[in-house]
Amino acid sequence: MAVILERDIERGKCAWLSWHEAALKICNSGIEQMQISSSVVQIAPADVALAVRYSLHLLENKAPGTGVEVRVAPWGAVKILEGPASDPHNLTPPDVIELDPEVWLRLSCGITSWNQEKQAGNISACGERDDLSDILPL
């Protein structure tokens, strides 16, 4: 199942770009990068969902495969990167990465780095391929 509907891709792109632009302005005003969230950026929850889904769509296209599942609850999950696929009885691949929407948006836009978020304890990841720093930002 697609993470975003075809008809919502353009709206998702606009939401993601709006979030990114607003976050950059906030960074330039002196607020610490890790504090940037959708409430600070002042984006509507529906637009946060579209921004997350659109950026997961970009990730899925940038690194296709079924070896790693990236979850950004509650808005979406995608499987990326080649490697061992899901167990046929479980459907979850051996590598799983879970992120909050705020963390995911910061990473996908390049506001923060994978290492910054990992050191802050904002990334839950298990498996051999639990580092997306070579793929991000989008």
Percentage of residues in strands: 15-25%
Oligomeric state of shown chains: single chain
Q: Flag low-confidence runs.
A: none
Number of strands: 4
Shape: globular
How can the largest sheet be summarized? Answer: 4 strands, mixed
Helical element count? Answer: 5
Q: Structural class, from helix and strand content?
A: alpha+beta
Q: What is the radius of gyration?
A: 15 Å
Q: What spatial order of strands do you see in the largest sheet?
A: 2-1-3-4
Helix percentage: 40-55%
Layout: helices, strands, pairs:
Blueprint: H1 9-28, H2 38-41, H3 45-62, E1 64-72, E2 76-80, E3 95-99, H4 101-109, H5 114-119, E4 123-126
Parallel strand pairs: 1-3
Antiparallel strand pairs: 1-2, 3-4
Helix pairs in contact: 1-3, 3-4
Please sum up the structure shown:
The chain has helices at residues 9-28, 38-41, 45-62, 101-109, 114-119; strands spanning 64-72, 76-80, 95-99, 123-126.
Descriptive notes:
The chain is of the alpha+beta class and 138 residues long. The protein has helices at residues 9-28, 38-41, 45-62, 101-109, 114-119; strands at residues 64-72, 76-80, 95-99, 123-126. Helix 1 crosses helix 3 and helix 3 crosses helix 4 (101-109). The longest helix has 20 residues, at 9-28. The protein is globular.
Notable traits:
four-stranded mixed sheet; alpha+beta; 17% strand; 138 residues
